[in-house]
Amino acid sequence: MNNYGFFIKSLTVAEKLDTEAVTIKFNKDLTIVFGASDIGKTFIYQCIYYMLGSKEEPKRIKEAKKYSRCVLEIESYKGVSYKLKRELSGGNFELFEIHNSKEDKKTEFKGILYIDNKYRGRTISKFLLELINMEDKNIKINKYGQTQKLFFQNLRQYFLLNEDDVIVKKSHIIGSHSQDDIFKFLITGEDNKESIEVISPTSIREQKRELDLLDKYLKNIKNELEEFGTDTLLDIKSQVERLKIEITNIESKIILLEEELRLISKKNTIYTKKIFCPKCGKELICECNTNILQPVEEIALIENRKKEILERIAELKKILLPLETDFVIYTRKIVRRDLLTERENSIIKEVELLESKIKDDEESIKNIRDKKITKPMIAPIEKLIFEILKKIKFNIKNINFSKKTSDFIINGQERAFYGQGYRAIIYTSFIVAVLKHLRSMNHQIGFMMIDSPLNAYRAKDEKSENLSDNFYNYFKEESSNGSQIIIFENTDVPDEVKDKIEKIDKNGFLAVEKLF
Asked: Which of 248, 247, 260 is nearest to 308 (CA)?
């Protein structure tokens, strides 16, 4: 037997200040939690499930309203004990390691365990998977190779069962791809970390829709490019060249006129400086007879020329503006055509690549050979179930696994066609077989817990073999081999296992026990 896995030592439900609490302890081998209906057995089951990482809170029965948190004590098969604390209202876990010595029992706080990985810290799932040596395993979620991390809660159906689980007709032993993959990993030790993912038909349909959109877009581009026929394009280019020449000519004329304007403005400035009479020294006009008309006439001519130049510049700019507008329009048409051509070439390449990928993906789907549960894989479990049923004196002649129903066929009849009692016995035998098989692997859960697994079974008459009593005797024998079995029961059990009973009296599990 390997030393992976863990077993449950005790469950405590306590008030906030620890003044009142109730505790139930479990044997390392077999514990039968026994008592009448409605005294808290299901609440215990729900609390343990909750303390192993479920987000589903225990049903708050009226007796539980004053209690606020749970404490679950577990021990690994390597001999290390832990306490897990969690509020009954939900949330994360506090983890404590228990150090036992001859003198004292001390607990050391080891940190917070988160309920999920959104906090980027250590999760309850990771902690429990480490104990059972199943951490960092990948499971396939479909036949196309897509994988996800294994979570501890994914394993529930192989060790933690309620009364409805064992009698259901439809198999949940195996079935979906994730269930198949978990089961394959459990019995073979091989996970899918190296799984090669192929694309699904849904993704291929999405690719084809994308291809249709690209084809439509490409068609629109081609239609627009057709409007730029060879003659039209040459005409546009010639118009651009003509406009460029005209614009350049006009701009040159404007530059020359502006230069002339600058020069005569400078000359005008010289003449408009104060002119003094050389004889009397007065400005421009004086009583002397000196002739000053010449400069005044030249100033008038300059002003007239300036006016002419400014008017001509305005005319040229008026002519230039529509030419520039036309030039921009024609230039943009050429740019637009170039962009369309570039985009057309790019989309053609995209279409070719996408068509090639769709072809390859469709071919890869045709070649999928998904590894289902095979006869060699299931054979050890079939053998163990056969041995268990034989041991409890079930009238078994043969057993086979049906790939069609993902369930077992006993004596030629599918499990679903048996009555509730026999369905429960066969399913429980499967869980015990998995428990036994894992002891030979390099990983194991280490315990199983079932709520009323044999409650649906009733012996046909006093002379018939009581399979229920035989099964309880088998539970005792099997648990002594190193795997914990916890059973919740409200009907009588054989005398041989009564020493393994943890009885809940008529007051119920939540009857108060004073701690202080």
From this structure: 260
- Residue 253 CA to residue 49 CA, distance in Å, equals 94
21/12 Cα distance (integer angstroms): 7
pLDDT tens, residue by residue, 380-426: 999 999 999 999 999 999 999 888 888 899 999 998 899 888 888 89
DSSP 72: E
Full-prediction pTM beyond 0.85?
Answer: no
- 513 contacts 20 by C-beta, under 8 angstroms: yes
The DSSP annotation for 393-446 comes to: T---S-EEEETTTTEEEETTEEGGGS-HHHHHHHHHHHHHHHHHHHTTSS----
**128 by DSSP, 3-state: which?**
helix
Q: How many alpha carbons fall within 13 Å on the CB side of residue 229?
A: 2
- Nearest-angstrom CA–CA distance, 376 and 53: 33
Q: Indicate the Cα dihedral angle 402, 174, 135, 26, nearest 10°.
A: -110
**Cα separation of 33 and 405, whole Å?**
33
**Nearest partner of 92 among 50, 58, 61, judged by Cα:** 50
Summarize pLDDT for 164-185 with one digit per residue, the tens. Answer: 887 777 776 665 556 777 888 8
Is residue 77 a contact partner of residue 443, using CB atoms and an 8 Å limit? Answer: no
